Amino acid sequence: MKAYGDMEHRDDPKHETVDEIARLVDAVVDGVVTDEQSHRLNELLGRSVVERRCYLRCIAMHSALKSTAGNQVGRRIEELRQRLERNRVSQPDLYPRLVLGRRSSASLLRAAVVLFVVSPLALYVASRSDLARDPAVGGIVQSPGSSRQRSVVAADHPSSLLDIVRVVRISPQTLWSHPNESFAMDSVVRAGSRLRILEGEVELLYENGVNLILIGPVDFVLHERGGTLRRGGLMASVPQAGHGFTIDTPNGKVVDLGTEFGVMVDDFGVSEVSVFKGIVEAFPSRPDVARDGKIQLSEGSALQWNKEMVKSLEADPRRLPVTLASYPRPTYSHEAESNAIPIVPGGIMADSDFWTSLGETSRSADGVVLEGAPVQEEVPYLVSRDQFDPTAGPLTVICDIRFPQLAPDDVPSFSILTRCADDRSQMDRSWRDILSTCVRCNFRSANNETDGLLETSTKYERDRELTSISWGGFRRPQQGVAYRLVMRDDGVNVSFAVSHREQQLIAKTVTCRSLFQGYKNHIAIEGWKGGKVIVENVQIHQSKNEDLPARRSTRFDERVATRREAEQESRANELSKRIPSDAKLVVADDFDAPHLNQNLWSVLGDVHLSEGAVSLGNERDPDHIDTFHPRPYLLSRKAFAPEEGTLFVLGRIEFDENYLNGYGGSFAVMSRCTDRYGEGPEWAVSALSQGIRCNLWPAATRADHNIEIHEKTGPNSLTFLRGSGLKVDRTSRCYFFLMEDSGGRANITFQNIADPAISQTIACDTSDAAPRSGLIGFESCWGSRVILDDIQVFQRPGNPTSDNRTPQ
């Protein structure tokens, strides 16, 4: 048989071929085609494009019969038959002979209805010569009940993809973003389908037994073995058969190992996974996590990350359902507001003990005046004295405000804040007077004469600026107009509405998600720097949902190390083998005495003995690490000059369990240092004013900066000398360290106690401007304490005039 490309070219089929194709198509339409006829039709269609064109015309004719069906079906069929017959007479080689007399109009209509469904597929298949001639694809036409040939549908869509997921539950309050793209109960959802829900829940069941609840608002793209969560939340229960079930997020992925877990993605670039049962593996798309990019999470733990940070949390069942049972989600209806507990029922100062002031505030006949100070550029606040956790029940804050006087160049604004701290950032930045952490909804003027903006923001740390999303479509604040602002916050979902109080049709509402968990949960209202805003009324409500499970109270620092970890921590410091035998031991302390040895040590900041070791820092909120707060130090009483003999400083440390949260905790050993803090606007103000600083920073934002050597030659200087990466095992927090300082060159080694193979050494020359002598110091980061133990300091006699720098 000739190959398709070698077939002779023919413009027109023979008359008998045209008639044969027409009869075979009739049999297909009537549903009476035999195996022999099916084989013959496929054989004809495989000859050349001419036969396939003839086949298409037959199919087009029957499709036309369907489209002309109606009250005048008989007349239209007859008109069509006559028109096609005239064309066949004038061009007999291109049109098949019609044999309509043998079937009734009703049977033609039934055939047309069938072909209306199958003809688009037939048109597509018949036009593809590669399908017609490729035996691997199967026949184009098959007879009823035939099992010897595969249908084209099965060829294009493997059976594993036909029914991979079904919709098994839709909550009554579910609203689809696009109703035309919605799915009904018991419908099939195929790979690549996108499900977008504004409100409510949709439960999916995969073929492998995985149950998945999508919690609105959500944007989800379904995959065969998981899906991509672009926004929103979901809860999954994965049996053993679903091992490897994967949820992708915009900045990483989560792989299940047989468990129950939840995933959320907010509008500020933050992803979060919570494990309620079993184990999952998270793969944040960040260069500073472990080299294989994998973080394993067990039951009760959670992880939150974006491009700047990885933060360990406890799984909070109030942010996602613990089981796949029906879960009462909080709503934002006005009816719910009426049933909420009135924290402030109305009147800005109904309870004078409720608020505390930051900046200029005063009483007036109309309410409370928040007056900014343009010279000091200070934003005024009223901050609640008590704290209100929105995950315990959705918060609703309603404010009625007016701007009494505005100039053309003014940029007025007003904000409502939840999940906020009660102090300012106090950084040398444009946002220094904003509260240090918060979720903030702001109504303000844009940088032109007419436009206004509704803006939602999250401030994660004291030393980090606001991350914001803003929307236009509302006129800028007007002088004397009474506005009503309503912020609702359930701990994840935030909505913000601004309207004219007297003209409710002038209104705009925006919504977003913020996964930020406040270190504190105050409520605040904020004025603007350049002028006054009068707050006439404030109402605060919290809807208590008794069905929500209580939050776990276990703190990171209450957990006890396992016996295996204790055994690993008690190992002898293997780095001691690197100390020369002629080095003299000059300081040694195992801190087992009841009090700190005042003859050996002095302290700066929160440093104390704790169970036979030194605690650099106090037990604090495990989520709050402040790199700008003065750091705690243990300092030697004696000063040492390395040029008189190389110094070797040996010891052991254990990080607190929150050491990878936010910017992360750190530990540094210093030589040639002073006992005074530095100066300046940057984070160096929290470190000592001078010295050689060797630092371990496991949560470094760059993978090549886990270990660093810095040089401080003055109070407001900090010079980076050398950095390197170190694999971080989240399950092991204990390290040995050895610092060497010869006066012209510094060397630092950190070694993981649980896995000695995880070890890194870096070295570099120090400058002539570096101090020549000073104290030995040990430093941690405020908010993430470090346990320090088994300190030994050796000094090896050397030539005081020698230059110990690396030869150039």
TrEMBL record:
An MF annotation (GO) of this entry: sigma factor antagonist activity
PANTHER family the record matches: PERIPLASMIC SIGNAL SENSOR AND SIGMA FACTOR ACTIVATOR FECR-RELATED, PROTEIN FECR
Protein name listed in UniProt: FecR protein
